Amino acid sequence: MTQDTLFLLGSEALESMIKHEATRPLVFSSNYYQTRQNLLDIESLKVDDLDIHAYRYVMKPTLPIRRDSPKKAITLILAVLLGGMVGAGIVLGRNALRNYNAK
Hints:
64% helix, O-antigen chain length determinant Wzz, transmembrane helix, mainly alpha, transmembrane
C-alpha cells in the first residue's frame, strides 16, 4: 500500500492494522532455527574438568637450498645493458644537440 491509500483508510483501520502487525509472530528462516538449536545443544553439553593441555609444534627454521633472489649473473647482465643504453642515449643526445646548434 502506498501512503495515499493508507491515508484514505482512516484512523480506525490504521489502528487495527497496527494491532494486527504487533500480534503477528515474526517469521524466521529455517537457518535461524537450525543455528538456535545448535546453540542450545552446545550449551547443554557438560564438560568434565580434565587437565587438557594444548601443544604447539613449530619446526626449527632451516637454510634454503637455493637463493630466492635474482642471481648475480642476471643482475650484472641487466646492469651492463641498462648502462649501455643510458650511455648510448647520452652520446646520441649530445650529438643531436651539437648538430642542431651548428645549423
